[in-house]
Design brief:
The structure holds two protein chains of two kinds. By secondary structure, chain A is mostly helical. Helices cover about 75% and strands about 5% of the residues of chain A. In chain A, helix 2 (about 35-55) crosses helix 9 (about 215-230) and helix 5 (about 135-160) packs antiparallel against helix 8. The chains are: A mainly alpha, B mainly alpha.
Chain lengths: ~290, ~325
């Protein structure tokens, strides 16, 4: 039974990992924690709903278009709303993205109300048996997609020059600008990338959980929990944290009580931060005066 | 708050400050005949504004004055409301006797929230943690069914004040006005003393404040405690106003409402908290109320304020008349 719980936990955990990864990309590149990310993830799923069901496009085209739309949204968000106040207190940036998230959620609720929507799977349902462990087609597709995206991210961060730019900007924006990096354009692109990655996460999520405007806040806290376990800013940490969270939910839910599935993420966040304020694998940050 | 003005030490001319304080007392006096002019529904909305005054004041104290991004306000609010509800329903206490316990429970929750802050959890870590705490409390309201009534909620008995049954919205108005006024005056007093200045010092630079000999830990606990107390009283008022407590009322949408109040009113401004409570409560009554419309409007409002009016509506009023400027908030 434990093996079954772990395997289904990994598939769910991969989704949390993808959400955490897309938040980490933005955080690494811009040092802003995206409090509106959950709603962007939900927006990605709603965008696919519009394109695939509303306009009758094939699923793959709808997914590509939704990712592109969310990329554009991220770029515009940075350019129009964040750039003007970027010199102000950091707090304002966090509040701005939070407000953007609320706006997105409101727009979704205005259009679709509180009704629960299920996205149709673009692939056949199926079940595989690995010994006594049941693996569903959903598990395979989700894990496959997330691993593929992770590979892409790994290459971008470690093989291409973009990775070095990310590191440079994260360390010091002024220094990066001095050596000729266009920090503004870079920030905009990274916001776009974060939103696009989140959108893919949202679509995958909508395959297995019903879509509601309130999905965003739940997604946000799962993503935060994964990031907290893994340490903020670490890509592998986000992956490990997401998978651990998924497994913990299943194991706690089965052995302790199903009511704990809902609050695993909250308990994880509170306990981890109480014991280690910078996350499990996070580095101690120094205070600058 | 305005960054452009010269940095001067505290204190206007005493005469002007004295006049300003006298003018302040005119506001509640002018409000006294309000119940005679409004119908029950309008009075209900006005009462709700008054109910949100302590809530916004408490929230603003931590986020605006202390500068810590703590989103646990809805948790204090809910704890206050449920304390009142449980004490009335289970212990049979009259409403007015539950106001102080509701505030105290809120204060305890506030002090508990300050513990991670003292352990060095800061900025977004604190935001995430307090967000999780708020959601955890909502789970408690749902799961602790014998006490809280679960997701169906609990009906709060009819409130009374010192034996005076608050059967009409007009009667509630006077009690609410007094409570809101007390919280505002007490907070004003607090901010005028070294406590208020210590909060500002911590917001500007915590390490420097500690280096100057300010016991930052003590002030952080105090700020959270007073914030929780004020918000808890707001919760008691909510229980009396609405008469039915459900876990849904204390979710993240409620956080948005309270967050919009302090952002639109003006971060770190006592006048701003009051303005925010009034404006944000009135806004959904003016706009058509579709599901989601409120979130959309409040979200856009916060975005506009952040872009064009970083110090909120209070700064707009202060520009019109210096009497609206908070004297203890100048930096």
């Amino acid at each position: 039974m434990l093996a079954q719980l772990v395997v289904s936990g990994v598939a769910a955990g991969m989704l949390y990992a993808l959400v955490a990864l897309s938040m980490t990309v933005v955080y690494r590149a811009t040092t802003v924690v995206n409090f509106g990310h959950g709603d962007m993830v939900a927006a990605g799923a709603y965008a696919v709903l519009v394109f695939a069901v509303g306009l009758g496009m094939p699923f793959a085209a709808a997914l590509a278009l939704a990712t592109a739309v969310l990329f554009l949204f991220g770029v515009l968000l940075q350019r129009v709303l964040l750039q003007p106040i970027i010199a102000g207190p950091h707090l304002s940036l966090a509040m701005m993205v939070l407000a953007v998230g609320f706006t997105l959620r409101g727009a979704e609720r205005l259009e679709w109300g509180n009704e629960v929507i299920n996205l149709a799977r673009p692939y056949p349902r199926g079940v595989f048996m690995l010994g006594s462990v049941v693996v569903t087609m959903d598990d395979v597709v989700i894990t496959g997609c997330v691993l593929a995206l992770l590979l892409v991210l790994f290459v971008v961060f470690h093989v291409t020059p973009i990775g070095r730019i990310i590191q440079a900007v994260f360390q010091t924006e002024r220094g990066a600008a001095l050596v000729g990096i266009n920090v503004r354009a870079f920030h905009a692109v990274m916001w776009g990338a974060g939103a696009a990655l989140g959108a893919i996460g949202g679509v995958l999520l909508a395959l297995i959980v019903p879509l509601t405007p309130d999905m965003g806040q739940w997604v946000l806290l799962q993503g935060f929990a994964a990031m907290t376990i893994g340490g903020f800013g670490s890509l592998y940490g986000a992956l490990v944290g997401g998978v651990l969270l998924g497994m913990m939910q299943n194991v706690l839910g089965f052995y302790v009580g199903t009511v704990f599935i809902d609050i695993t993420a909250y308990l994880v966040i509170i306990l981890v931060l109480l014991i280690r304020p910078n996350g499990l694998f996070g580095r101690q940050s120094t205070v600058r005066v | 708050m305005s960054g452009g003005t010269a940095k001067l030490p505290q204190g206007d001319a005493p005469a002007a400050s004295w006049r300003g304080r006298r003018a302040f007392w005119l506001v509640p006096l002018l409000l006294l005949p309000v119940p005679a002019l409004l119908n029950q529904y309008q009075q209900y909305v006005v009462n709700m504004m008054l109910m949100y005054v302590p809530v916004a004041v408490g929230f603003n104290l931590v986020v605006g004055n202390l500068g810590l991004l703590a989103f646990s306000n809805v948790a204090f609010f809910g704890i206050g409301a449920y304390t009142t509800g449980v004490l009335m329903l289970q212990a049979g206490l009259p409403w007015w006797m539950t106001i102080i316990p509701a505030g105290l429970m809120g204060a305890i929750a506030g002090c508990a929230t300050s513990v991670p802050a003292l352990r060095g959890v800061r900025s977004f870590y604190l935001a995430i943690m307090t967000l999780a705490f708020g959601e955890l409390m909502r789970w408690v309201y749902i799961r602790w069914e014998p006490v809280t009534g679960g997701s169906m909620g609990m009906a709060v008995p009819a409130p009374d004040f010192l034996g005076w049954p608050l059967i009409t919205e007009g009667r509630k108005f006077y009690v609410f006005l007094a409570l809101a006024l007390l919280v505002v005056i007490a907070t004003d007093r607090l901010l005028r003393t070294r406590f208020g200045r210590a909060f500002l010092a911590i917001r500007s630079n915590e390490v420097a404040a500690a280096a100057m000999g300010i016991p930052t830990d003590r002030y952080i606990v105090l700020c959270f405690g007073w914030s929780g107390f004020a918000v808890g009283i707001g919760g008691a008022m909510y229980a009396a106003l609405v008469g039915h407590l459900t876990p849904v009322s204390f979710d993240l949408t409620e956080l948005l409402v309270e967050f919009a109040m302090i952002m639109v009113g003006g971060l770190g401004s006592l006048v701003g908290s009051v303005i925010g409570a009034v404006v944000i409560t009135a806004a959904p009554q003016v706009f058509l109320d579709f599901p989601g419309f409120q979130e959309l409007v409040f979200g856009v409002l916060i975005i506009l304020v952040l872009l064009f009016l970083p110090n909120g509506l209070a700064s707009l009023l202060a520009r019109l008349h210096p009497g609206f400027r908070d004297r203890y908030h100048r930096e």
